[in-house]
Specification:
It is built from 15 helices and 3 strands. The chain has about 400 residues and is mostly helical. The longest helix is centred in the last third of the chain and has 34 residues.
Protein backbone atom coordinates (compact mmCIF):
# COMPACT_ATOMS: atom_id res chain seq x y z
CA UNK A 1 0.00 0.00 0.00
CA UNK A 2 2.74 2.47 1.04
CA UNK A 3 4.89 1.38 -1.92
CA UNK A 4 1.97 2.02 -4.29
CA UNK A 5 1.28 5.37 -2.64
CA UNK A 6 4.78 6.59 -3.49
CA UNK A 7 5.08 4.81 -6.84
CA UNK A 8 6.25 6.96 -9.77
CA UNK A 9 3.68 5.15 -11.91
CA UNK A 10 0.83 7.02 -10.18
CA UNK A 11 0.31 10.22 -12.22
CA UNK A 12 -0.56 12.29 -9.15
CA UNK A 13 2.92 11.48 -7.75
CA UNK A 14 4.48 13.07 -10.84
CA UNK A 15 2.32 16.17 -10.32
CA UNK A 16 3.39 16.19 -6.67
CA UNK A 17 7.07 16.03 -7.76
CA UNK A 18 6.61 18.91 -10.21
CA UNK A 19 4.95 21.03 -7.51
CA UNK A 20 7.80 20.36 -5.06
CA UNK A 21 10.45 21.29 -7.66
CA UNK A 22 8.62 24.51 -8.58
CA UNK A 23 8.11 25.52 -4.95
CA UNK A 24 11.80 24.85 -4.25
CA UNK A 25 12.68 27.18 -7.12
CA UNK A 26 10.43 29.83 -5.59
CA UNK A 27 12.05 29.26 -2.21
CA UNK A 28 15.54 29.88 -3.57
CA UNK A 29 14.26 32.84 -5.57
CA UNK A 30 13.16 34.60 -2.39
CA UNK A 31 15.64 35.93 0.12
CA UNK A 32 15.46 34.02 3.38
CA UNK A 33 12.77 31.70 4.67
CA UNK A 34 9.29 32.39 3.37
CA UNK A 35 6.65 30.72 5.52
CA UNK A 36 4.01 31.31 2.84
CA UNK A 37 5.86 28.98 0.45
CA UNK A 38 5.98 26.23 3.06
CA UNK A 39 2.30 26.60 4.03
CA UNK A 40 1.20 26.97 0.40
CA UNK A 41 3.19 23.93 -0.69
CA UNK A 42 1.76 21.72 2.07
CA UNK A 43 -1.78 22.92 1.38
CA UNK A 44 -1.47 22.43 -2.39
CA UNK A 45 -0.04 18.92 -2.24
CA UNK A 46 -2.51 17.91 0.49
CA UNK A 47 -5.51 19.04 -1.58
CA UNK A 48 -4.17 17.33 -4.73
CA UNK A 49 -3.54 14.03 -2.95
CA UNK A 50 -6.77 13.90 -0.98
CA UNK A 51 -8.97 14.90 -3.94
CA UNK A 52 -7.37 12.30 -6.25
CA UNK A 53 -7.72 9.63 -3.57
CA UNK A 54 -11.40 10.50 -3.00
CA UNK A 55 -12.13 10.41 -6.74
CA UNK A 56 -10.51 6.98 -7.14
CA UNK A 57 -12.72 5.68 -4.31
CA UNK A 58 -16.01 7.29 -5.37
CA UNK A 59 -16.05 7.40 -9.18
CA UNK A 60 -15.63 4.65 -11.75
CA UNK A 61 -15.59 7.16 -14.62
CA UNK A 62 -12.81 8.94 -16.48
CA UNK A 63 -10.00 9.88 -14.04
CA UNK A 64 -7.81 11.53 -16.68
CA UNK A 65 -9.87 14.74 -16.87
CA UNK A 66 -9.30 15.29 -13.13
CA UNK A 67 -5.55 14.68 -13.49
CA UNK A 68 -5.34 17.13 -16.41
CA UNK A 69 -7.17 19.73 -14.33
CA UNK A 70 -4.77 19.10 -11.42
CA UNK A 71 -1.77 19.74 -13.67
CA UNK A 72 -3.29 22.94 -15.09
CA UNK A 73 -4.16 24.23 -11.62
CA UNK A 74 -0.63 23.43 -10.37
CA UNK A 75 0.97 25.40 -13.23
CA UNK A 76 -1.43 28.30 -12.61
CA UNK A 77 -0.82 28.44 -8.85
CA UNK A 78 2.97 28.28 -9.25
CA UNK A 79 2.91 31.16 -11.73
CA UNK A 80 0.39 33.24 -9.73
CA UNK A 81 2.42 32.68 -6.55
CA UNK A 82 5.57 33.84 -8.33
CA UNK A 83 3.77 37.03 -9.49
CA UNK A 84 2.19 37.78 -6.11
CA UNK A 85 2.41 35.39 -3.11
CA UNK A 86 -0.81 36.75 -1.62
CA UNK A 87 -2.74 36.02 -4.82
CA UNK A 88 -1.11 32.59 -4.93
CA UNK A 89 -2.23 31.77 -1.40
CA UNK A 90 -5.79 32.94 -2.20
CA UNK A 91 -5.78 30.82 -5.35
CA UNK A 92 -4.94 27.73 -3.28
CA UNK A 93 -7.94 28.58 -1.07
CA UNK A 94 -10.12 28.86 -4.20
CA UNK A 95 -8.67 25.55 -5.36
CA UNK A 96 -9.96 23.95 -2.15
CA UNK A 97 -13.40 25.56 -2.68
CA UNK A 98 -13.31 24.37 -6.31
CA UNK A 99 -12.61 20.77 -5.25
CA UNK A 100 -15.57 20.93 -2.83
CA UNK A 101 -17.72 22.31 -5.67
CA UNK A 102 -16.56 19.48 -7.96
CA UNK A 103 -17.71 16.80 -5.52
CA UNK A 104 -20.91 18.72 -4.66
CA UNK A 105 -21.98 18.92 -8.33
CA UNK A 106 -20.84 15.36 -8.93
CA UNK A 107 -23.03 14.10 -6.06
CA UNK A 108 -26.09 16.24 -6.83
CA UNK A 109 -26.10 15.61 -10.60
CA UNK A 110 -25.55 11.88 -10.10
CA UNK A 111 -28.30 11.39 -7.50
CA UNK A 112 -31.12 13.47 -8.97
CA UNK A 113 -32.98 12.12 -11.98
CA UNK A 114 -34.81 13.96 -14.74
CA UNK A 115 -32.50 16.92 -15.34
CA UNK A 116 -33.83 17.12 -18.92
CA UNK A 117 -37.28 18.12 -17.57
CA UNK A 118 -36.24 21.40 -15.91
CA UNK A 119 -35.82 23.56 -19.02
CA UNK A 120 -38.00 26.40 -17.68
CA UNK A 121 -36.00 26.44 -14.45
CA UNK A 122 -32.71 26.89 -16.36
CA UNK A 123 -34.12 29.79 -18.40
CA UNK A 124 -35.80 31.37 -15.35
CA UNK A 125 -32.67 31.26 -13.17
CA UNK A 126 -30.56 32.65 -16.02
CA UNK A 127 -33.00 35.54 -16.52
CA UNK A 128 -32.96 36.36 -12.78
CA UNK A 129 -29.15 36.38 -12.76
CA UNK A 130 -28.96 38.54 -15.89
CA UNK A 131 -31.45 41.07 -14.51
CA UNK A 132 -29.67 41.09 -11.14
CA UNK A 133 -26.42 41.89 -12.93
CA UNK A 134 -28.03 44.75 -14.85
CA UNK A 135 -29.59 46.23 -11.69
CA UNK A 136 -26.90 45.56 -9.08
CA UNK A 137 -23.84 44.94 -11.29
CA UNK A 138 -20.56 46.81 -10.81
CA UNK A 139 -18.42 47.94 -13.73
CA UNK A 140 -14.94 46.41 -13.60
CA UNK A 141 -12.42 46.55 -16.48
CA UNK A 142 -15.05 47.99 -18.84
CA UNK A 143 -17.67 45.26 -18.33
CA UNK A 144 -20.68 45.41 -16.01
CA UNK A 145 -20.64 41.75 -15.08
CA UNK A 146 -19.79 41.66 -11.37
CA UNK A 147 -22.04 41.70 -8.33
CA UNK A 148 -20.69 42.81 -4.97
CA UNK A 149 -22.22 41.43 -1.78
CA UNK A 150 -20.40 42.84 1.23
CA UNK A 151 -16.71 42.29 0.58
CA UNK A 152 -17.36 39.40 -1.79
CA UNK A 153 -17.62 39.77 -5.59
CA UNK A 154 -18.65 37.18 -8.18
CA UNK A 155 -19.60 36.95 -11.84
CA UNK A 156 -23.17 35.63 -12.39
CA UNK A 157 -22.20 34.83 -16.01
CA UNK A 158 -20.04 31.97 -14.70
CA UNK A 159 -23.19 30.31 -13.25
CA UNK A 160 -25.25 31.18 -16.35
CA UNK A 161 -22.70 29.39 -18.57
CA UNK A 162 -23.58 26.08 -16.91
CA UNK A 163 -27.33 26.84 -16.98
CA UNK A 164 -27.01 27.66 -20.70
CA UNK A 165 -25.51 24.24 -21.48
CA UNK A 166 -28.27 22.58 -19.43
CA UNK A 167 -30.87 24.59 -21.38
CA UNK A 168 -29.44 23.48 -24.76
CA UNK A 169 -29.24 19.85 -23.61
CA UNK A 170 -32.82 19.91 -22.26
CA UNK A 171 -34.14 21.37 -25.52
CA UNK A 172 -32.51 18.78 -27.79
CA UNK A 173 -33.50 15.97 -25.41
CA UNK A 174 -37.17 16.92 -25.55
CA UNK A 175 -37.95 19.54 -28.21
CA UNK A 176 -41.70 19.44 -27.63
CA UNK A 177 -41.26 21.35 -24.35
CA UNK A 178 -40.69 24.52 -26.40
CA UNK A 179 -42.16 23.28 -29.65
CA UNK A 180 -40.95 26.08 -31.90
CA UNK A 181 -37.35 26.41 -33.05
CA UNK A 182 -37.68 30.18 -33.43
CA UNK A 183 -38.68 30.57 -29.76
CA UNK A 184 -35.63 28.47 -28.88
CA UNK A 185 -33.41 30.71 -31.02
CA UNK A 186 -34.97 33.80 -29.44
CA UNK A 187 -34.02 32.54 -25.97
CA UNK A 188 -30.47 31.69 -27.11
CA UNK A 189 -29.90 35.15 -28.58
CA UNK A 190 -31.41 36.83 -25.53
CA UNK A 191 -28.55 35.24 -23.52
CA UNK A 192 -26.01 36.67 -25.98
CA UNK A 193 -27.85 40.02 -26.07
CA UNK A 194 -27.67 40.40 -22.28
CA UNK A 195 -23.91 39.73 -22.43
CA UNK A 196 -23.51 42.40 -25.14
CA UNK A 197 -25.36 44.88 -22.95
CA UNK A 198 -22.95 44.05 -20.12
CA UNK A 199 -20.03 44.45 -22.61
CA UNK A 200 -18.86 40.97 -21.70
CA UNK A 201 -17.80 40.17 -25.26
CA UNK A 202 -15.54 37.23 -24.42
CA UNK A 203 -18.31 35.35 -22.61
CA UNK A 204 -20.74 36.21 -25.45
CA UNK A 205 -18.32 34.55 -27.90
CA UNK A 206 -18.13 31.45 -25.69
CA UNK A 207 -21.96 31.22 -25.58
CA UNK A 208 -22.20 31.59 -29.35
CA UNK A 209 -19.51 28.99 -30.11
CA UNK A 210 -21.02 26.44 -27.67
CA UNK A 211 -24.48 27.06 -29.12
CA UNK A 212 -23.30 26.71 -32.73
CA UNK A 213 -21.42 23.49 -31.97
CA UNK A 214 -24.50 21.84 -30.46
CA UNK A 215 -26.80 23.44 -33.04
CA UNK A 216 -24.65 22.14 -35.91
CA UNK A 217 -24.66 18.58 -34.56
CA UNK A 218 -28.27 18.21 -33.41
CA UNK A 219 -30.38 20.60 -35.53
CA UNK A 220 -32.26 18.86 -38.33
CA UNK A 221 -33.11 22.03 -40.27
CA UNK A 222 -29.70 22.64 -41.86
CA UNK A 223 -30.72 25.96 -43.45
CA UNK A 224 -31.02 27.52 -39.99
CA UNK A 225 -27.33 26.80 -39.35
CA UNK A 226 -26.29 28.91 -42.36
CA UNK A 227 -28.73 31.67 -41.38
CA UNK A 228 -27.21 31.80 -37.88
CA UNK A 229 -23.67 31.99 -39.23
CA UNK A 230 -24.66 34.74 -41.69
CA UNK A 231 -26.50 36.59 -38.91
CA UNK A 232 -23.44 36.43 -36.65
CA UNK A 233 -21.24 37.90 -39.40
CA UNK A 234 -23.71 40.78 -39.92
CA UNK A 235 -23.92 41.44 -36.15
CA UNK A 236 -20.11 41.35 -35.91
CA UNK A 237 -19.71 43.95 -38.70
CA UNK A 238 -22.43 46.20 -37.25
CA UNK A 239 -20.85 45.94 -33.78
CA UNK A 240 -17.55 47.19 -35.19
CA UNK A 241 -19.18 50.39 -36.45
CA UNK A 242 -21.74 50.94 -33.68
CA UNK A 243 -19.99 49.72 -30.48
CA UNK A 244 -16.79 51.60 -29.58
CA UNK A 245 -15.66 48.79 -27.27
CA UNK A 246 -15.63 46.31 -30.18
CA UNK A 247 -13.89 48.77 -32.50
CA UNK A 248 -11.04 49.32 -30.03
CA UNK A 249 -10.51 45.54 -29.69
CA UNK A 250 -10.33 45.08 -33.46
CA UNK A 251 -8.04 48.08 -34.06
CA UNK A 252 -5.57 47.00 -31.36
CA UNK A 253 -5.65 43.47 -32.78
CA UNK A 254 -4.79 44.59 -36.33
CA UNK A 255 -2.11 47.13 -35.36
CA UNK A 256 -1.25 47.23 -31.63
CA UNK A 257 2.16 48.87 -32.29
CA UNK A 258 0.61 52.21 -33.27
CA UNK A 259 -1.16 52.30 -29.89
CA UNK A 260 1.49 50.66 -27.70
CA UNK A 261 1.46 53.57 -25.23
CA UNK A 262 -2.30 53.53 -24.80
CA UNK A 263 -4.89 51.00 -26.03
CA UNK A 264 -2.34 48.50 -27.31
CA UNK A 265 -0.05 48.57 -24.26
CA UNK A 266 -1.34 45.32 -22.77
CA UNK A 267 -1.13 43.22 -25.93
CA UNK A 268 2.30 44.57 -26.94
CA UNK A 269 3.72 43.83 -23.47
CA UNK A 270 2.27 40.34 -23.78
CA UNK A 271 4.05 39.80 -27.11
CA UNK A 272 7.33 41.17 -25.68
CA UNK A 273 7.05 38.76 -22.73
CA UNK A 274 6.40 35.72 -24.96
CA UNK A 275 9.28 36.66 -27.27
CA UNK A 276 11.73 37.25 -24.41
CA UNK A 277 11.07 33.78 -23.00
CA UNK A 278 12.38 31.97 -26.08
CA UNK A 279 11.93 28.21 -26.35
CA UNK A 280 12.90 27.30 -22.77
CA UNK A 281 11.95 30.44 -20.82
CA UNK A 282 13.91 32.69 -18.50
CA UNK A 283 13.20 30.42 -15.52
CA UNK A 284 10.61 30.84 -12.76
CA UNK A 285 11.18 34.16 -11.00
CA UNK A 286 13.69 35.45 -13.56
CA UNK A 287 11.33 37.17 -16.01
CA UNK A 288 9.33 40.39 -15.77
CA UNK A 289 5.68 39.42 -16.25
CA UNK A 290 4.71 42.25 -13.89
CA UNK A 291 5.09 44.65 -16.84
CA UNK A 292 1.82 43.24 -18.26
CA UNK A 293 -1.34 44.71 -16.67
CA UNK A 294 -3.66 42.03 -15.26
CA UNK A 295 -1.02 39.37 -15.86
CA UNK A 296 -2.35 37.12 -13.08
CA UNK A 297 -5.81 36.86 -14.70
CA UNK A 298 -6.25 37.35 -18.45
CA UNK A 299 -2.53 37.27 -19.36
CA UNK A 300 -1.30 34.35 -17.28
CA UNK A 301 -0.43 32.45 -20.48
CA UNK A 302 2.04 35.19 -21.48
CA UNK A 303 3.75 34.90 -18.07
CA UNK A 304 4.00 31.11 -18.48
CA UNK A 305 5.58 31.53 -21.92
CA UNK A 306 8.06 34.09 -20.60
CA UNK A 307 9.32 32.05 -17.65
CA UNK A 308 8.64 28.47 -18.83
CA UNK A 309 9.26 29.12 -22.52
CA UNK A 310 7.33 28.41 -25.69
CA UNK A 311 7.60 24.70 -24.82
CA UNK A 312 5.89 25.42 -21.48
CA UNK A 313 3.12 27.27 -23.33
CA UNK A 314 2.76 24.39 -25.81
CA UNK A 315 2.53 22.04 -22.81
CA UNK A 316 -0.45 24.03 -21.47
CA UNK A 317 -2.12 23.97 -24.91
CA UNK A 318 -1.54 20.21 -25.18
CA UNK A 319 -3.20 19.69 -21.78
CA UNK A 320 -6.29 21.51 -23.06
CA UNK A 321 -6.21 19.42 -26.26
CA UNK A 322 -6.18 16.22 -24.18
CA UNK A 323 -8.98 17.56 -21.96
CA UNK A 324 -11.12 18.31 -25.03
CA UNK A 325 -10.25 14.91 -26.52
CA UNK A 326 -11.34 13.11 -23.33
CA UNK A 327 -14.53 15.21 -23.20
CA UNK A 328 -15.43 14.36 -26.82
CA UNK A 329 -14.71 10.70 -26.12
CA UNK A 330 -17.10 10.81 -23.16
CA UNK A 331 -19.78 12.49 -25.32
CA UNK A 332 -19.36 10.00 -28.18
CA UNK A 333 -19.66 7.02 -25.83
CA UNK A 334 -22.68 8.38 -23.98
CA UNK A 335 -26.07 6.89 -24.93
CA UNK A 336 -28.24 9.18 -22.82
CA UNK A 337 -29.11 12.10 -25.10
CA UNK A 338 -29.18 14.73 -22.34
CA UNK A 339 -25.81 13.76 -20.86
CA UNK A 340 -24.30 13.36 -24.34
CA UNK A 341 -25.10 17.04 -25.02
CA UNK A 342 -24.04 18.04 -21.51
CA UNK A 343 -20.63 16.37 -22.00
CA UNK A 344 -20.24 18.05 -25.38
CA UNK A 345 -21.35 21.43 -24.03
CA UNK A 346 -19.08 21.43 -20.97
CA UNK A 347 -16.11 20.29 -23.06
CA UNK A 348 -16.59 22.90 -25.78
CA UNK A 349 -17.20 25.60 -23.15
CA UNK A 350 -13.80 24.93 -21.52
CA UNK A 351 -12.07 24.41 -24.87
CA UNK A 352 -13.41 27.57 -26.54
CA UNK A 353 -12.66 29.66 -23.45
CA UNK A 354 -9.04 28.48 -23.54
CA UNK A 355 -8.85 29.15 -27.30
CA UNK A 356 -10.33 32.66 -27.01
CA UNK A 357 -7.92 33.89 -24.33
CA UNK A 358 -4.79 32.14 -25.64
CA UNK A 359 -5.62 33.32 -29.17
CA UNK A 360 -6.11 36.85 -27.78
CA UNK A 361 -2.82 37.14 -25.88
CA UNK A 362 -0.76 35.84 -28.84
CA UNK A 363 -2.63 38.22 -31.25
CA UNK A 364 -4.23 35.45 -33.30
CA UNK A 365 -7.75 36.84 -32.67
CA UNK A 366 -9.03 40.10 -31.07
CA UNK A 367 -8.42 40.17 -27.34
CA UNK A 368 -11.39 39.67 -25.01
CA UNK A 369 -11.35 39.59 -21.23
CA UNK A 370 -11.88 35.98 -20.20
CA UNK A 371 -9.80 33.81 -17.92
CA UNK A 372 -7.78 30.73 -18.86
CA UNK A 373 -9.76 27.86 -17.23
CA UNK A 374 -8.06 26.32 -14.15
CA UNK A 375 -4.92 28.46 -14.68
CA UNK A 376 -5.86 32.16 -14.26
CA UNK A 377 -6.42 33.80 -10.89
CA UNK A 378 -10.10 34.21 -10.02
CA UNK A 379 -12.59 32.52 -7.73
CA UNK A 380 -15.76 32.66 -9.87
CA UNK A 381 -14.07 31.28 -12.97
CA UNK A 382 -12.21 28.54 -11.09
CA UNK A 383 -15.27 27.37 -9.14
CA UNK A 384 -17.54 27.30 -12.23
CA UNK A 385 -14.87 25.36 -14.16
CA UNK A 386 -14.77 22.80 -11.35
CA UNK A 387 -18.58 22.57 -11.43
CA UNK A 388 -18.42 21.87 -15.18
CA UNK A 389 -15.78 19.20 -14.58
CA UNK A 390 -17.90 17.56 -11.85
CA UNK A 391 -20.83 17.33 -14.28
CA UNK A 392 -18.51 15.90 -16.97
CA UNK A 393 -17.35 13.31 -14.44
CA UNK A 394 -20.94 12.08 -14.01
CA UNK A 395 -21.33 11.79 -17.80
CA UNK A 396 -18.14 9.71 -17.97
CA UNK A 397 -19.55 7.22 -15.46
CA UNK A 398 -22.56 6.68 -17.66
CA UNK A 399 -20.12 5.66 -20.42
CA UNK A 400 -18.48 3.08 -18.17
CA UNK A 401 -21.89 1.74 -17.19
CA UNK A 402 -23.02 1.34 -20.82
CA UNK A 403 -19.74 -0.29 -21.82
CA UNK A 404 -19.92 -2.79 -18.96
CA UNK A 405 -23.47 -3.70 -19.97
CA UNK A 406 -22.41 -4.27 -23.56
CA UNK A 407 -19.35 -6.29 -22.58
CA UNK A 408 -21.28 -8.30 -20.03
Amino acid sequence: MIKKFFSYRMPQNLIFLIDILALLLLYFYKDGFDQFILVSGILLTFIIYISNFMLLKTSSGDHYIFLIMTMLVSIGIIMIYRIDPMFGFRQITWFGVGIATFFLFYTVIKNIQGWENFIKLYVGLSLILFLSTLVFGAKIKGATNWIKIGGFTFQPAEIIKILFVFFLAAYYSSKEKIGNTYIFLGIVYSYIGFLFIQRDLGTAMIFYFVFMTIFYIFEEDRKLIYYNIAGAVVIGVLSYFLVSHVKVRVITWIDPWSYMDTKGYQITQSLFAIASGGFFGTGIGLGHPEFIPEVHTDFIFSAICEEMGIFGGIGVIMLFFILVYRGFKIALGQHHQFFKIIALGMTTMLGFQAFIIIGGVIKMIPLTGVTLPFVSYGGSSLVSSFAALGILQVASEEVEFEEEEQNG
